[in-house]
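Entry 14. Ran structure prediction on the chain below.
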Amino acid sequence: MIDFSSPRHRAKFGYLLLAPAVLMMALIIIYPILLSVDISLQDVRIARVGGDREPWTLENYDWLVRSGEFWNAVWVTAKMVLTVGGISLAIGLATALLVNQKFRGRALARLFVALPWAVPEVVATVIWAWMLDSSFGVVNWALLKVGLIGAPIQFASNATAAFFAVCFVMIWKGYPLVSIMLLAGLQSIPEEQYQAARVDGANVWQRFLFITLPSLAPVIGVTAVMTTLWVFRDFAIIYVLTQGGPIGSTTTLSILTFEQSFSFFRMGQGAAVGVVTLVICAFISRALVGRFANSVH
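Output, structure tokens:
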């Protein structure tokens, strides 16, 4: 009988406690990834568990390289990541700095900041789809009333308008998480650092540049990774608002994966898009985490 209380076997006891969680992670994460890679290497129209296997081939990845749809989806996804990620980070940082100040009603202000994140994604998107409707949407009505536009904006049929409408809804939905994470980071910064900086004559901007931003660098890195992964994988907002249209202007990699797999029933090609998306996300995550981790030292 092994005595797990002894220092010699204490590490083995830790591994034993971790084993159920590791097995569960392998079951719900690693196995689907391996299955997706396997399907991506087969010419599969509809994947069936236990069905006859097709021989492995690189035709699906060859299709990716030659497909204009894939490269358009990569370009749209990159634009959306930069637009949504950058603006969400800026708004999230601004709101975090605001609600970190001491004023009456601060708890209520924090509640309103977090409210968009609490609303279910599909429900919020359906509401925004109604508000952005070109015929009876409140957004076009308000813009017409104040004279900013002379005719209703066709958010569903204009490629540029559709792209920025999707970005706007994603920013509205995503910035509260950024704000909450940065607020947690702000509250972990010792007040003594700011007091010492004031004694040394540092103004507001100097305190922000030399104390706040460097202290927030690790949190900003993690937040940037989470926002990037969220934009990469988000499906509901884009599908409910535009279904990837018009003319592919909002077709991201997640939408392309769905279309190839469940609209055109080319699951091999859909799996190949998913695998490439996974590789891109892993590379970006590693680069962002490494970048912000190095900026701390």
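The chain has a mean pLDDT of 89. Will compare against last week's run tomorrow.
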